[in-house]
Each structure stands twice: as structure tokens, then as C-alpha cells.
Amino acid sequence: MLAASSIELIGNTPLIALSRVHDGPGRIVAKAEFLQPGGSVKDRAAKAILLAARADGRLAPGMPVIEMTSGNMGAGLAVACAALGHPLVVTMSAGNSPARARMLEGLGAEVVLVPQVDGAPGQVTGADVEAAARVAAALARERGGFYVDQFNAVECIAAHETGTGREILEQVGAPVDGWVAAVGTGCTFMGVARALKAASAATLCAAVEPLGCEVLAGEPVTKARHLIQGTSYGAVPPHWDPSLMDLSIAVTDDEAQQWRRLLAVREGLYVGYSAAANACAAAKLLRSGRLPADATVATVLCDTGLKY
What we know:
Elements (H helix, E strand, L loop, with lengths): L14 E3 L9 E6 L9 H15 L8 E4 L3 H13 L3 E6 L4 H9 L3 E5 L11 H18 L2 E2 L7 H18 L5 E5 L4 H13 L4 E7 L36 E5 L1 H15 L5 H15 L8 E6 L7
Parallel strand pairs: 2-10, 3-4, 3-6, 4-5, 7-8, 7-10, 8-9
Antiparallel strand pairs: 1-2
Helix pairs in contact: 1-2, 1-5, 5-6, 7-8
């Protein structure tokens, strides 16, 4: 296939069996979203939002695009904006990894770092994200730009239902027994869950949350700071559909670090902390006894480890 632009490279990522970090019971299969041109699963959402906004007139040709990001959505937007001809301005909590800001600047984005409210370097809280979002909204008003507002953009859910979820079903060749994914905006989890549950109502869908920040499980937040950047900000996402979540699986910072190293040295997959948390949670689900011994659990390797 000859792609006309980088935006056409988004989607249709490979599905890989993680048989070297989990040798049973069952098997873990993971979407290699770190192979997207922007390096993460957020490329799908960025493409969906911008194309929808251009189609309905919210985003005029050449108009600036402005968004708050932890890094991944910003990179996806940078790829799409370059292909579509829009300047990009992103606001980011200063607590996110410096490598993310450098990557965004390398892709041509203007990066505005926002001081942390109550987080720490490498540990971004919900208050930190809210502060960065307020700056982004203000910049959009000042510059007459299109404010992406990813947490409230419903296009993202549909992109994963018709894209990621459909791809998993086609690549496995059958319904899967389980689906696990960390939750930031919730769009990846919900969109894929809709597709998988439509194929088989028996598919068990588990949200992945950092231990101590399990709001989807209904638990009080006792540890707002955690290593799994881009997820679990201590609040339920705006469009969250609790009917799609069958259970929540908690992962500790230590487990995320351990699994990140395991994925690198055993599978040759250098990915981020959310990807590691997903793989860890998938193994926990398979070992829980809630699924058959030969079950297949699908997950997503959210982003490349080069951003950390």
C-alpha cells in the first residue's frame, strides 16, 4: 500500500502473543499500538477527532489546534496536524516526562508546560491535569483555535469500537474471553469493550487501575500519585459507561516497573508503564480462575517506552 500521508498509517496495528512473559494459563494477545506513527494508541483518537471536526466545520483549514496532553494525544495530534496542515499548541503538566515534550517539539508543536499543583516529577495527578486543561482552553479562546477537549470527545469511543475492537476480532478470528485496559479518557476501554461484547456477551472486560487510585471500582483515592502516566486521574471520565466494566484490576507501581522490564527483556518490546500495567493485569485475570484454562485475553500496548 502507498500511503498518501502519515495519517493513513494510523490503525491496523499488529496483534502479538505475549507468550514469553505469560506461559499460561490461557494466553495474552496485545495490540502493538506503540507502532503507530505518533508512538501510541492516542493516534487513533487524534485522527478521529480532527477528521470529524473538519467534516462538520468546527475545524477550518489552517486553524490552530489546541489541546491538553500527557504526551501521547499530543504526539498523535502532531502527526495528524502535520498531514492536514494545522499548527498545534499543546499544554502539558511539568510532571510528565521531558522526553514527551522534546518529541512534541520535534514534531513541530508549540509546548506550554504548566506547573504541577500537587503531583511530583513522573507522577501527574488529576489536579495537575485540570490545571493544564484550563490553560489549553484559555489559549484556544485567545488564539481562535480548535480546542480538542479529548475527555469530552465522543468520536474517540467510536474510533476504537469500529477500529481497534474490530481489528482484534478479525486478527484473533473469534470472540475473546477477556479484555483489559488502563483508563484515562476511557475511550479505548469502552470502544473496544463495545465491539467485543457485541461479538460475545460473555467477554469479561476489566479496567486497569493503579492501586490506591481505584475510582472506577468505587474505592476512595489513597494514592493520587502513581507511575502510570496518562491514566487514572482520580475521577471517573465524563463519558464513562459502567455497564461495560465487569471488574477492576489493581496494579502497583512496582508491578508496572517489573512488567515493563519483563516485556523489554523477554519479548523485545520497549513500552511504557500503562502497557506494562495492562500486561500485568491480563496475567492476573487469567490466573484468577474467572476464565477457562484456555482463555484468550486481549489488551493494548499503549505506547513506546522512548517517551519516558
